[in-house]
Write a structure and sequence with these properties.
Helix content is 67%, strand content 0%. It is mostly helical. It has 2 domains: 84 residues, Rna Polymerase Sigma Factor, Chain: A; 84 residues, Winged helix-like DNA-binding domain superfamily/Winged helix DNA-binding domain (Arc Repressor Mutant, subunit A, Orthogonal Bundle), CATH 1.10.10. The radius of gyration is 19 Å and the shape is elongated. This is Sigma-70 family RNA polymerase sigma factor. InterPro entries: RNA_pol_sigma-70-like, RNA_pol_sigma-70_dom, RNA_pol_sigma70_r2, RNA_pol_sigma70_r4_t2, RNA_pol_sigma_r2, RNA_pol_sigma_r3/r4-like, WH-like_DNA-bd_sf.
Length: 184
């Protein structure tokens, strides 16, 4: 089978599996922006995010043979990106200091103002969260992981994941209120 000049994603993956460097470069260029966007949500330092992106692509190309053709590539790749970004985060973060927050009663009274924000607004406000709150918020609200999965990923109790999410939402809510007051 001769390689088309602009292969579709299935063909591109097929050629990457056979070790074709040009196809790997095309896949890299096609998903670079997507990959960087995900890594920047977890790693605010651009250089760390770029390193995580590149390491993720290396992991993709090393393990692309294990990718099943019937699976969704973007979801498979996103999981690699998130895990790689978390690995970078773990290098710089001390989760051993995370305490179990079982005595804290999660509050569920949030204004619908947070629900009405755009993703860009929320991401901008998230830069004001502490690292653990930001990680938990990203993993739960944006990437759809469960508290049990988050607990395992971050080596914290499941109840702490819930509490960090609650506190992140509370912080975002107060930031939103402050931001709204100053905008008037």
């Amino acid at each position: 089978m001769s390689k088309p000049q602009t292969p579709n994603l299935e063909e591109l993956i097929h050629y990457c599996k056979s070790g074709d460097l040009q196809s790997q470069e095309m896949l890299y260029k096609h998903f670079y922006g997507y990959a960087l966007g995900i890594c920047l949500r977890y790693l605010y330092n651009r250089e760390d995010a770029l390193e995580a992106v590149n390491d993720s692509f290396i992991k993709v190309f090393k393990s692309i043979d294990s990718f099943r053709e019937d699976a969704h590539f973007k979801a498979w790749f996103r999981k690699i990106l998130v895990n790689t970004a978390l690995d970078y985060k773990r290098k710089n973060m001390r989760f051993s200091q995370a305490i179990e927050l079982v005595d804290t009663e999660p509050q569920t009274t949030y204004s619908s103002a947070l629900d009405n924000l755009s993703a860009k607004d929320i991401l901008g406000l998230m830069k004001n969260l502490n690292e653990t709150q930001s990680l938990v918020f990203n993993l739960y609200e944006i990437d759809g992981y469960s508290h049990k999965e988050i607990g395992k990923m971050l080596n914290i109790p499941e109840s702490s994941s819930r509490t960090y999410l609650t506190r992140a939402k509370q912080t975002l809510q107060s930031l939103l209120i402050t931001h709204s007051i100053y905008k008037r």
